[in-house]
Amino acid sequence: SGPSASNVNGTPNGTNGNSSVPPIERGLLSFMGLPFSGPHTQLDNLTFFPSKIGDFGSYDHLTTLLDARASDARLFAERSQTYVRCSSSIDEQLNTLWPHERKLPNAYRPSSSKTVKICSPLPFNTHVHSMVLEELVEATPTPPPHGSSASHRTTFASRHVASFHNVTCGASADHSAKFSDGGLRRLESRRVGLVQAARESYMAMGLSAKKLLDSRGCKYIYASPSVAGGSTSGNTGGTAAAIERNVHRYRTQCLEIHRECASLSWVIAVRRSNCFSQALCIALTSYLSHVSDAARAVRNAAVWATHGYLLTYEGMLSSAGKEMGMIEDASDSIGMLHGVKIRLVVDDSHTHNNNTNTAPRACTERVAVDSTVVKWLEITWLPPNGNRRNPPAVAEQHSWPNVLITVGLDATYYGSRIPPPLQSTYISLVPVLFQMGVDIRQWSANKSANTKATIKEKKQKHFEEINYNTYAGNTNTATSNYDEEDEEEESGLPDNDRLIGLNTEAFRKLNAYAHAVRPQHIHTPTNPQTHANALFGDLPNGVHPLLQPLHQSVLRSAGNTMEHGVLDHAAKTCATLGGGSMIFCKSGKDRTAMQVTLKQTQFILKERFRLAGQPQTQTHPNTNDAPPNTNDTYTEDANEIYRQATVMRTYGTRLALCEKNVGQPKYAFNSLQAKFMPKMLKPPVGVIAGFLKGGKIFTEGAIES
Known about the structure:
Elements: H1 28-31, H2 50-53, H3 59-88, E1 127-138, E2 156-170, H4 184-215, H5 240-291, H6 294-307, E3 309-315, H7 322-335, E4 340-346, E5 363-368, E6 374-382, E7 402-409, H8 411-417, E8 427-435, H9 440-445, H10 451-465, H11 475-480, H12 484-489, H13 496-517, H14 531-536, H15 548-557, H16 565-576, E9 580-585, H17 591-611, H18 638-651, H19 654-662, H20 671-675
Parallel strand pairs: 2-9, 3-8, 3-9, 4-7
Antiparallel strand pairs: 1-2, 4-8, 5-6, 6-7
Helix pairs in contact: 4-5, 5-7, 13-15, 15-16, 17-18
């Protein structure tokens, strides 16, 4: 809520002009950046015709609203207590279950718990995917013992070469709230429309009431900013009875709109808080994982302290069906990270005063953590106050909450591992989201007008190749375990315009960050007729040299040929600038596994080239199922990349992670889906789940995509 608005006689409601109602500064709507910018719901105490107008917000409605909010508040308090308890102690009962069966708040949340409401603020299937590359160096040969006939023995020592860190996770979306009405962006768009309608109805009601008072010769002060300066007399526009009917009609409209807007605002605020909580945990995980890499932290500490920590999100959701709602939730929650700052300090638990609150108008809470290095987290919320920090490229139109995260670290670790620029310094976050659909629907959207016929032909051919006797006797199982989400998500073509918009916005932010970190003076002639200028608008410093490959990929994808190269080049640019990468899809285990193993293989080959003293001539392979072009072609090592990625996907950690999530060590692809995957992301045939949902792999509903 906010300050009470003045009613038609110019005095604050219920105050007779003596005082105003103070704003509530710590409500969920306020913290989630959702102030009601239209006319506020209020109890109007007009004495001109009380029996006709009545209360603008009825007592019964407000009572019902308060009861519902009180119930929600109790639920939030219970959740908070549960989360605090789980963070500071281990639930031995949960540990007796298999990981995919743990569907209550815990340190690890499997993707099988996506729709469990009590877990909705917790990120799911979140892991730090790390690889350390070491070089074996031949040591001095050891001579055999005197008199022995054995030959000299050669020993080897290992030398650290490089390390690879990516966070893999499920989309930071509120799966428990479903996506029948879309995600956050569609809900917020609807709310904006309601606010505008409320303003219009409020103004119309005020004008009608003004005319009615004019017709009765009443003296008054009209204080509506929307119609300030209007005449207080003149044509009444009809009989008094007709005008009075208009007043009641507009007032009814206002009442209905206010009620709908209040309900929708609360839904958005709860959804925002759940999604933002997930995004915040994922971002903090990425930052701490990079700080723990001593060499990387020392190399990039000054950049992070000065320009912020770059977070590059690589989304692999399709902009169709329910996954479009997931993209909306994820993009909104990732955008909210602009208001987050993280500080690392020495553990002061022995001297800390729990009642200390150093920031005015702040809400601070410290939570103990069961860890040998991280001792506690302190979260300070500051309601949006108009002084929000904007990202480097463009000012956002949203009002983000300001969140300060303080991490208390073990004193020994802090003194030996944390570089001075990061000690007790608030580090801002710079999040960017690149999004690329990777499935059969995206493939179809990339094709010509004959897409539907081509898909139908491929499906028919594939059906003819399948021996249905393999699945005999499993018909009932297939029906009972079919996931309703998948049935809807197979329909409709992706909205490429939404993906283009997200990638364009992310490119502008990343380009601005690159210019800030590595300034370049580039003279770029401006021609508003070019496709690039029409897409990216005005880039004050031009395209940074580091982003040229990404720039070309985004341009090509804007021609309705969404290519995987956007994610590939975004990840490489992020690594060059010292940022952290997050890879996500719906569950964070299947499409995400294909992407992270591809990046892992590219990392290995790059380091091998470097160690061998050879230049890296590889260009990004064309990962679409489309003919290669001269700007994006395979090179001699593309087959080697795919071969090594296949080894990673078959024998690496990702299959174990699938089992950890759903109880089966299989990727949730069928052979038809695999046909339409980009070439470099195709899963190995031997480790995919199968074609029909009646197979043994689905008997417990384990595979959801």
